[in-house]
Design a protein that fits this description.
The protein is an alpha/beta fold and 322 residues long. Helix content is 39%, strand content 16%. The chain has eleven helices and ten strands. It has an eight-stranded parallel barrel with strand order 3-4-5-6-7-8-9-10, surrounded by six helices. The chain is globular. It comes from Mucilaginibacter gossypiicola. GO terms for molecular function: hydrolase activity, hydrolyzing O-glycosyl compounds.
């Protein structure tokens, strides 16, 4: 009888461990001593997928089925909801429709127990301050204190200096903090989220739990040693980084898929214990697209539905997040 009880307890314990979600394992995220950590003080090592712009081809994949499939089959521990702000059919033109898409994705991520980035996917956010404040105020009020939720307030500032980016962030952060006092807020950095060394020299000091986005495209000839050196400098200056977007191809989303360069970047991310989301869930004919044309809208993808990038990233996630 004692042996039977011991076996039953072992099975129950094994089930409870395997049934844990990324959020139950890591809890509420925070920034501590210049590093993104979980509630236990360790790097959470979140790896997952970015949905594409919530416009055009990518829009149809903003549904609970896709989020569930990325969680259960790809083993993603974080996803990114990239809300298109402009040019057409984005938040500036269709705010209610865009918010509905984001809420569907965020709510399913919460049910699935994974983390989710609410991304204001706009290269010119400083031109849309009032709209951004309204949006993030609504999101923060709705999701205040929910540990799954991370706010990304500016995707890839283009030819914008750090002063402008920082000034914008200091207008949006207070709107979020009115309602959500502690959840992570991710701030952009100059030159498509690449010049993190510049941000590191003049960090935002007046608010807690502020992280900074770093982006790269692994096969791009301009995104190699020199770009890693910028990030290494930022890390040395205790800038808390999260890689909210990276792709296997080149900066335009297309081009070559260089496996060796991609593996080098993956090793660098693992060595630095950085969390990341890979770009992107779409069936557009591009190198970084994870899906073949007309892949099922609600998930359930077979290998035949995945591009070479999709097959590769799925395999990576299933290995590192097992």
């Amino acid at each position: 009888m004692k042996v039977l009880i011991a076996l039953l307890l072992l099975v129950a314990f094994s089930y409870s461990v395997s049934a844990q979600t990324p959020v139950t394992q890591n809890g509420k995220l925070k920034v501590e001593n210049g590093v993104l950590v979980n509630e236990h003080g360790s790097a959470p090592r979140l790896r997952g997928i970015s949905l594409s712009w919530s416009l055009w081809q990518g829009r149809k994949y903003y549904n609970p089925g896709v989020v569930s499939w990325l969680t259960d089959d790809f083993k993603a521990s974080i996803i990114r909801a990239s809300m298109g702000v402009q040019p057409d059919s984005g938040y500036l033109q269709q705010p209610e429709q865009q918010k509905e898409l984001i809420v569907k994705v965020v709510d399913q991520a919460i049910r699935s127990g994974i983390y989710v980035l609410i991304d204001w996917h706009d290269h010119h956010s400083n031109q849309h301050v009032s709209q951004s404040k309204e949006f993030f105020g609504q999101m923060a009020k709705k999701y205040a204190g929910v540990p799954n939720v991370i706010y990304e307030v500016w995707n890839e500032p283009e030819k914008t200096d750090w002063k402008t980016i920082k000034d914008y962030a200091l207008q949006i952060i207070p709107e979020i903090r009115k309602y959500d006092k502690d959840n992570i807020i991710v701030v952009g950095s100059p030159h498509w989220d690449q010049d993190v060394d510049i941000a590191a020299a003049d960090q935002i000091k007046d608010y807690n739990n502020i992280a900074y986005s770093f982006h790269f495209y692994a096969s791009d000839p301009y995104h190699q040693e020199a770009l890693r050196a910028k990030a290494d400098k930022a890390i040395a200056l205790k800038l808390p980084l999260i890689i909210t977007e990276w792709g296997v191809g080149e900066a335009n989303g297309d081009g070559k898929f260089n496996l060796q360069k991609t593996q080098t970047w993956l090793k660098w991310m693992e060595d630095n214990k950085l969390s990341w989301t890979n770009w992107n869930v779409t069936d557009k004919h591009e190198t970084t697209a994870l899906l073949q044309h007309n892949a099922p809208v609600y998930g359930g993808w077979t290998e035949a539905n995945l591009t070479p990038a999709g097959i590769f990233i799925r395999n990576v996630l299933r290995e590192v997040n097992k």
